[in-house]
Amino acid sequence: MLYKYALAKGEDVYITEKHRTIGPMLVDLDFRFDPVESHEKPVRTYTTATIDAFANLLGSCVSHYADKETFDIFVLEKPSGPTSIKSLVKDGLHFQIPDIVTRPGVQYVVCADVLKGMPAVLDHLNLVNRYEDVLDESIIERNDWLMYMSKKPGSCPYLVTRVLRYRASDKVLQDVTADTQLDAQSLMDRFSIQNKFEETPIREERLNDVIDHEQQMQEKRKRRELVQTVLTNQPVTSNNICENLEVVCKLVDILDASRGESYNDWVRVGWCLRNIDHRLLDKWIEFSRRSPKYVEGECARMWTHMRMGGLGMGTLHIQHHVSGTHYDIARVVHHMYRYEYVCSSLRNRTWYEFRNHLWHYSDSACSLRKRLSTDVFNEYAQCALYHQHKAVNGDSEQEAQKRNVEMCNKLNAIALKLKTTNFKDNIIKECCELFYHEKFEEKLDSNCGLIGFLNGVYDLENSEFREGRPDDYISYTTGINYVPFSEDLPQLANIKRFWSQVLPKDDIREYVLTLLSSFLSGHTREERFHIWMGSGCNGKSLSVELFDKALGDYTCKFPVTLLTQKRAASNAATSEIARAKGRRFACLQEPSEDERLNIGLLKELTGGDKVQARALYKEPVEFKPQWHIALLCNHLPHVPSDDGGTWRRIRVVEFTSKFVEFPKNANEFPIDLELSEMLDEWKEPFMSLLIEYYKTRYAKKKIKEPDAVLACTREYQKNNDHFADFVDTCIEKTSPSGVLRMSDAFSEFRSWVKDDNIPIRVPKKKDVQKYLDRALGKPSMENGDVCYRGFSVRDRGGGFSNKGGADYDD
């Protein structure tokens, strides 16, 4: 629904769908042509006849396996035509058969047959890429498929241009474009690869072909995994963080070719590359081929048995930076830990370390200093041992032995210094510049759609739980593990029972739970200020405490004085706001009975615009708030505002339940004095419930505000907005001939304030008129007085009324 809504609004969309175990037949043809002159626009080479010929070939191959008499082949083209990219002209075609739904194995054998017939169909196009590259098999199961009307950034979507119906019995292709419903809304549903649940039967005589091909594919996959050692089950640790492979390759390229002559040198390079990244096998093979001793297949065989740990990126850099200067050693440290540490402030020497999915503040780079004396020391010590071994057992030439002895002594000297305080201090100082990230703290916890857990990161936008990455820039954590939602989760039944007692009305309970789920996201589109009110022992404080425990670092508390006192001076510290950067929920509690809200600051804190704040003894920071604010109170504070911008933000939920020792009334429930002790057991399943609410309710349907909430809010507005109360009480709508004079309205206003004991000072006449202009519409001047047509003063008993538009004297 959201996808269709975005398209209806004319927004650009870039959504792909993941493949299921079965899916519709998809074909992606990528054409590459020789470049045209720079002043010429590329011209489309294929024709309608080309499309017909390929569709006939595709239909024939599909019907060879699929037991279906007729099916429609949809042809999709880019309206923009071919484009010039990197000295080549690029074009393409998509074919989709939504009525043929099969396992990937069937599509692979169909593609294999199609590939055999492609030369006869496409040879006239003079393509520069091979037919194996023209027919993109990756879209069968590996790569996601673009939804209809979606596109890649900077491109345009593929659109249906023709529909061809293939009849298997006589191999006839018929154009049925004019008879097919081609509106975008219909095609979105028909083309989705997620809603295909009925598999097309395969012809019995072809089943063995499919099974044989699937077995061959499985064997190839096993061999490829063995050679490339794609260790998909290996846990992600700091050692697995992807290094800059381009830098690694350059370092290998400048290594002396003689290192491939000696077995120890050669295998040492392999160890280094294997420990940096398992994808560097090809680079080791490339390096090995520079030696006449190279044996085909030996690298791949050894690669699978190399253990993790030991030699790595640092070893490669040590080979090139052995001068022993603080800067050179810092460069080695930087390349070893560049994805694990960041210096965010050179002035304050502020450091962060990435571990367990999150960025953690590291006081004075303490853990990095420790690694200088352990891991970095070991790197230099191992290199020293290597050169010692070469000096004793290696090259017999005296000059070479001398070089190895010198290198060994130099590396040992550096290694020993890495155990001394002053030397490490200087290394850390040099590291500050190399690890410096100017925008790091600005980016920290700025991604509104990510939530940090102890065991990973949850991506709200993609509904995906995954490993944390350094470029997530997350430092906050819920303090709990993510647990996938299930109705069988421990304590979930107790949690639901608790909420059904705190908020007995179904619509209000669903509203509040959906509201809390929306607080998981840092987006603040609604711009609401929530007030949860009710007398004591009603469960609202316990509800918020449970939410606090579930969200952990993502919640904070504002002092109620933040919104009830005057705005702080521009140069004053606003630590409470500065500390709230990146938080998703902020709570204020229990204002005094006569407190007044600071409306200007309320609008600023809920408006979604950037705010500026300054922590104590720190520089001001500017950031976009992610918090959603809720005020918990027994007595509603006064709101000194009559403008729509204020009341558009405020929503009031009344907690009407009562937890007592001996329940008597319908809204009373037995009190459990030990319930607060259960919240630690509830926080994980409650977070799972909120994520489920976010996925199934908020993300799909947004928030529906119950009538009771709107009514409670209107009543609150009426009690605070005295102008609105006056109009509601003293003014009534009449026939168009009725006339309300401003002088009569102001006189009635003064009487109303006095007679009804309204606790305000009588405002000036022009302020009353300003409000009536907004409430009743544009006035007219009649006999020198401002008049409102169609309204009159209500007869409240004993007073006058000019209802009916009676004549009056000025």
TrEMBL record:
Keywords: ATP-binding, Helicase, Hydrolase, Nucleotide-binding. Transmembrane segments: none annotated. GO terms for molecular function: ATP binding; helicase activity; hydrolase activity, acting on acid anhydrides. SMART domains: D5_N. Residues 507-668 form the SF3 helicase domain. It comes from Tetrabaena socialis. The keyword Transmembrane helix does not apply. Signal peptide: none annotated. This is Putative helicase.
